[in-house]
Design a protein that fits this description.
- By secondary structure, this protein is an alpha/beta fold.
- It folds into 3 domains: 116 residues, 3-Layer(bba) Sandwich (Glucose Oxidase, domain 1); 108 residues, Orthogonal Bundle (Enzyme I, Chain A, domain 2); 297 residues, Alpha-Beta Barrel (TIM Barrel), CATH 3.20.20.60.
- It has 22 helices and 16 strands.
- It has an 8-stranded mixed beta sheet. The protein has an 8-stranded parallel beta sheet with strand order 15-14-13-12-11-10-9-16.
- α3 packs across α4.
- The longest helix has 24 residues.
Length: 583
Amino acid sequence: MSFTLHGLAVSEGIAIGQANLVSSATLKISRVAISPRRVEKEIARFDDALARTRKELMAIKASPSDSSTDIGAFIDLHLMLLSDAELTEAPREIIRTRLCNAEWAVSMQMENLVRQFEQIEDIYLRERSIDVRQVAERIIRKLASRSGRFAQRAGKTLRSAPVDARIIVAHDISPADIMSIKDTDYASFITDVGGATSHTAILARNMALPAIFGLHNASELIRDMETLIVDGSRGVVIVDPDDAVLDEYRARKARLEREHSKLKLLKTARAVSLDRVKVDLLANIKDLDDIQPVLESGAEGIGLFRSEFLILGRANALPGENEQFDAYRTVVEAMGRRPVTIRTFDLGNDKNLLPVEDYANQKRNPALGLRSIRLSLADPQTFQAQLRAILRASALGQVRILIPMLSHAHQIEQTFAALDQAKSSLREDKIAFDENIPVGAMVEVPASALSLGVFLRRFDFLSIGTNDLIQYMLAVDRSDEQVSPLYSPLHPAVLSLIAATIRQAAKAGIPISICGEIAGDPHLTRLLLGMGLRQFSMRSGQIPAVKQRIKQSNVSKLAPSVRRLLRSDDASKIMAGIERMNR
């Protein structure tokens, strides 16, 4: 009988295939009492499992794959956790003091750490409990001599079904597990747990595989070999669809694939509307592995280099000035004459450097705490090292500095004072840099949007960070599945504030872009064009679709339609108006 499941859409696309149920992530471990004389042998078993787990992860990381660069950082994090005393020394102590088997000791310590993580309100840190569980379970499987993470139920293998597409159905799945079956012809994966910021979700998007997480009990409701439709754009799984639904989705899938092929031809085309309005399409990057996709996308530059990703997962080891300079130089030289906008470290909320044992000690409201520019100003030495590294890179190309989460005038003055200090120190050291390097500000706090005058007077350009701006305006964590339906970029108040910010910047002659997720959504491209936005920054893979929408638009006709739309305080009418604009 056909039925539908709804979850969190983490990677767009449509997949049609047969379900391949994999073993549950929750391993049932029994406590086995051991005698004191067996303690050292049990610890030796545990040490051997650790060594084999480490060897397995290293092999996965070293294996050739198109996705190996994407997953390298994730494997490094799991290797780091594998060396953490909380997962290595603590189980040994449990074996000694409680005279138990190693499997149970690892399981108990895993649950202890997971409980600590789950007490944290911040969604990104809370989801790091997934990494802890995945590493611990990998150790347990080695102790239990389970050779494969994806041992299918009823002893079947992933290749046993006579179909072209296979869809993995699991309680949970790790990035390393995805790599371990990279040669299997799977088209999608869905899980009971997980969120949009999990490493597996990031990997799914990088691999362009439709994926839905947070389905709760899909692995219990779906039967092995059952036909599934995964609609990764809507977060919908259709189980055992009838012929009419199958035909409809096959047609939609074919249409999407044709559109995707056509979009590739737009790489060298300029983003110019039907009425000759030129729009700049820039790319967001997080690390050096993103450079090649940016170059292949036809992006006109880097609109947002999330510099904090250079240091995440490094066990609290901050890179020095020279290491940062080398990374920035690599990006600047690769981009040639195209601009590169480097945002200073945006740490402290969803991105953290603390070791495992300190995560539970975080503030209860990290999104409102010491983060981003607040953290940089509180740590002048680290801030100076980053500013000097960025300034040095500015001698090699068109570099711009972007400051996140500013909300007060005194923060602006402190930031420019720090920048002046960095420039002065470089002059003393006779190191070249761009004396007139452009400096911009993120508009991602409602206070900054509502007091924009001081920003327009002091900065060379602005960038609206809609992801945080929407969350702060609506008091909604979009990654929390319990309230995520309330997160809406089309809320009348949100649109009104964004439009007013764009309008004020244009009046003052200050360039302004949007670098949040809405910039890469082609369904909202015409809305933003009608607001007056002329610079978009997004993931490189989103550029072709947005470029196509721009080339099919008449901006002069959009502006009055958008003005009328923004006068409405009814979100449903706004959505209907956007649909009309996109016809």
